[in-house]
Amino acid sequence: MAWVVAKRAAAASSSSAMKSVSAAAAIWMRSYAKVALGTDIVSAAPNVSLQKARTWDEGVSSKFSTTPLNHIFKDKKVVIFGLPGAYTGVCSNKHVPGYKENIDKFKAKGIDSVICVAVNDPYTLNAWAEKLQANNAIEFYGDFDGSFHKSLDLVTDLSSALLGTRSKRWSAYVVDGKVKALNVEEAPSDVKVSGADTILGQI
Amino acid sequence: MAWVVAKRAAAASSSSAMKSVSAAAAIWMRSYAKVALGTDIVSAAPNVSLQKARTWDEGVSSKFSTTPLNHIFKDKKVVIFGLPGAYTGVCSNKHVPGYKENIDKFKAKGIDSVICVAVNDPYTLNAWAEKLQANNAIEFYGDFDGSFHKSLDLVTDLSSALLGTRSKRWSAYVVDGKVKALNVEEAPSDVKVSGADTILGQI
């Protein structure tokens, strides 16, 4: 809902977040090749790791370890969704709760992991996941430098919303690293195609 | 304390955060000129704005407004401190609480604003400030793209701690935009010179 308000506010503003989003979406359409049905995510993002959400103290204890994509996807059925950021509107109110509420349906379909990823550091992402009480159902991974989303051409400039370079809103069903279903929203305000209900029908 | 642990962990790790910090500190020593005693912060960071910490919905309502430095510093006595990030160790456990607990002493010395700034988006910073119960005493401002800290040569690469480009840990006493006292830690694990006690003695 808040993103809908954002869209209205943006309509009245020449330097709006939504105009940036539209421009970024147009760019993305021209560079669609990086991720599509059949893409092997591990190969498409070589040498890229994600960072498991955790507290700062856990980060220190782990010596700031990261998780190679291979460990996340190999021999697994994964549902992964990306979103613009912790502590933003639709992400908090709709996108994450939809996956959390349907976790039993995903498990019943044989999904090994439901993963949320965002261009945030893993400590911020962990605090947000705890606040949403979603960290038991969903695995959260940070992409603090955006390298994962950049490799897949899934970044967008949300500087006009005071966020900087972030992830588009998207979801994918991935089997042993291969993309079997992919849904990318045209605007980050939308949860038209990237919500839990849609991808449940694609598994 | 957690950063002390980080330092120990880093000592045993070839790709440690602390080594990056040391390297960055060395670079900083060579480029000290941008901010020093007497610097006019508003002139040193032209066309730079900060983003008042707020919820996403407040961000939408404000049309994602930003605050020019002139509004923050002009005709005011300001104590400002910067830190590596929301939801990290020393920042949460020591740096912010020190300023919060001494807010009455700052006010008694005629300080108009005590400001915390970090390379975070304003929504994340707001959630963290609320968690620390510090947002009534201290004003929090995000520097989401790091442009404020870059202008003042106060950034450091904390990618090894999974944070990316962030602020050094620092504090300053600023009167009508002019820096009257400046304290920059050599390592972000330290609160040797940038804490509330030190700057209280410099006002």
From TrEMBL, chains A, B:
Its UniProt entry gives the catalysed reaction(s) as: [glutaredoxin]-dithiol + a hydroperoxide = [glutaredoxin]-disulfide + an alcohol + H2O
Query: According to the UniProt entry, what is the EC number of this protein?
Result: 1.11.1.25
Subcellular location, record wording: Mitochondrion matrix
Q: Which SUPFAM superfamilies match?
A: Thioredoxin-like
Gene Ontology MF terms: thioredoxin peroxidase activity
EC top class, as a word: oxidoreductase
CDD domains cross-referenced by the UniProt entry: PRX5_like
Question: Mind telling me which GO cellular component terms the entry cites?
Answer: mitochondrial matrix
Q: Which InterPro entries match?
A: PRX5-like (IPR037944), Redoxin (IPR013740), Thioredoxin-like_sf (IPR036249), Thioredoxin_domain (IPR013766)
Instruction: Write out the catalytic residues in the record.
Output: 91
Which intervals hold domain Thioredoxin? Answer: 39-203
Kindly report the protein's main subcellular placement as a broad class.
Answer: mitochondrion
Biological process (GO), any one: hydrogen peroxide catabolic process
| Keyword list, A-Z | Antioxidant, Mitochondrion, Oxidoreductase, Peroxidase, Redox-active center, Transit peptide
Q: What does this protein do?
A: Thiol-specific peroxidase that catalyzes the reduction of hydrogen peroxide and organic hydroperoxides to water and alcohols, respectively. Plays a role in cell protection against oxidative stress by detoxifying peroxides. Reduces preferentially hydrogen peroxide rather than alkyl peroxides. May be involved in mitochondrial redox homeostasis.
Family per record: Belongs to the peroxiredoxin family. Prx5 subfamily.
Cite the PANTHER family for this sequence: PEROXIREDOXIN (PTHR10430), PEROXIREDOXIN-2F, MITOCHONDRIAL (PTHR10430:SF34)
State how it assembles: Monomer.
This protein's name: Glutaredoxin-dependent peroxiredoxin
Originating species: Arachis hypogaea
Taxonomic lineage = Eukaryota, Viridiplantae, Streptophyta, Embryophyta, Tracheophyta
